[in-house]
Amino acid sequence: MKTNLIMTLALALPALAQTTVKDALVKHWKTSGEFTLAVADAMPAESYNFRPNPEEMSYGQLMAHIAGVNLNACANASGLARPGLPPKIAEWSKDTQKVEIEKETAVVFLKDSFEFCNQAVAAMTPERMDSVQGPPARNLTGFEWLWGYFTHTAHHRGQAEVYLRVKGIKPPAYKF
Fold first, then answer.
1. Predicted structure pTM score
2. How many domains is the chain partitioned into structurally?
């Protein structure tokens, strides 16, 4: 009898320790934020207006783009009110071709966006994860907003790493 109880408990422990989708999202959004901030910080301030060709966003604009889209996605997914934009970012959002974003503004905006996303993901209920959220034209569940824009961040972070390499700067080591 005692052996059966021990075997049952031993088999049940891994099931109890399993990570939920929400737990995984919380973990990976936090890691993504830390890594994206490291990539943002790797570019010297004087090179934040660098663009490898005229059609690309500058490095500062790229960082602002990541942060702004994160705010929208995490607000849509969670239902939390999207924080307002800092003045320079609001100016840039009205004219993304002409307004440059300096390093300090970009890094603070990125940090704030990831802090908001970390709060938003932590606040998500299973119902919110599974139901359609945000603009009807997008037709995305809360989970799809979070996963889709986690991927969007990774895409543009990779683009930023190419900018760094073009400038002869080794990007930070990837952390997962």
1. 0.87
2. 1
